[in-house]
Amino acid sequence: MVCAYRARATRWPTPLFVDPWAEALAGTDGHEIAERLDQRFPPMEHWLALRVAYLDRLVALAVDRLSIRQVVILGAGYDTRAARIPRAGVRYFEVDHPATQAAKRERLAGLAGYPVDAATYVTCNFEREDPIERLAATGFDTAEPALVIWEGVVPYLTEAAVRATATRLAAGLDPRSLVAFDFVGKKLATGQSLSGADQQTRAYVGELGEPIQFGTDDVLPLLAACGFRWVRSLDFNELALELLGDYQRDRQFRFQHIALAAVKPPVAGWP
Ligand SMILES: C[S@@+](CC[C@H](N)C(=O)[O-])C[C@H]1O[C@@H](n2cnc3c(N)ncnc32)[C@H](O)[C@@H]1O
Questions:
Q1: Which residues are CB-neighbours of 145 under 8 A, at least 6 positions away?
Q2: Of 207, 224, 235, which is closest to residue 261 (Cα–Cα)?
Q3: Ligand 1 geometric centre to CA of 73 (Å)
Q4: Which of 5, 181, 192, 258 is 20 to 30 A (C-alpha) from 236?
Q5: Is 141 touching ligand 1 by the criterion CB < 6 Å?
């Protein structure tokens, strides 16, 4: 579904990013799921386009300007950054639930020209496994900084898994690393006092087999408790204003945020 939205955003007259693989990778099933979600939550295409565009820019900043040589994509799904933002000497690690990763790798095998070796594939179930241990076992260097992108995953985990994973990242990564993830607000996660449209969206995502389990209106206390000491949070209206140049109330970006976290205040040049 996310891939289908990336394919659509690639066709915008002035695209925020181009993903040449997304159309084929999404398949008709991906497009159908996205079209059904459109009926419940029309701004989804914009939300995902902004999320992808912002995180792409963060990857480019990290590897081109800040000499980061390891990019970790946690809960990678059908992410294509390893193919889209390749750099000499930069290693991509795609960490995902074994079932999702196996499905992706099967699809990639049928995608002519896709550089499957651009990423190192690492399986991990965040509900019960340690991502740092799993990464280290495949050649990830914990003594070197990394950019960790945890995109579209946190809402689908239990709070215990979010805390356990974030705690391991804070303790196990080189302190010069940066973690970026998106999260939703508490109301959407708990289903309390939502509008009809938001209830329908939440229910539909649950029907797809990945119910929303975790949300927060204030991510800083959680990240502080997990060991992070530098936190920034952005909301999607801020991203829309910056990347699309306008504010539209009916985009309904009320519950979506992106957090950046590090255990040390980052060097000058971080966003
Ligand atoms: C909505 S997809 C997002 C995929 C991708 N990051 C993107 O933005 O396109 C959610 C991802 O979270 C992963 N995920 C969900 N629960 C997980 C768990 N317990 N352990 C590891 N990965 C999990 C899924 O396998 C899937 O890849």
A1: 68, 69, 70, 173, 174, 176, 177, 178
A2: 224
A3: 10
A4: 192
A5: no
Residue nearest to atom 11 of ligand 1 (CA): 75
User: Cβ(77) to ligand 1 under 6 A?
Assistant: yes
Provide the domain count of the chain: 1
Q: What is the CATH number of the domain that holds 256?
A: 3.40.50.150
Q: How confident is the model at residue 270 (pLDDT cuts 50, 70, 90)?
A: low
Structure tokens at 10: 């690639």
Q: What is the pLDDT of residue 231?
A: 96
Dist CA 73 CA 33 (whole Å): 23
Residue type, 128: R
Residue that has been written with the tokens 């949300």 in this structure: 215
User: Using CA atoms, how far apart are residues 258 and 233, in angstroms rounded to an integer?
Assistant: 6
Question: What CA–CA distance (Å, rounded) separates 105 from 101?
Answer: 6
**pTM flag (> 0.85):** yes
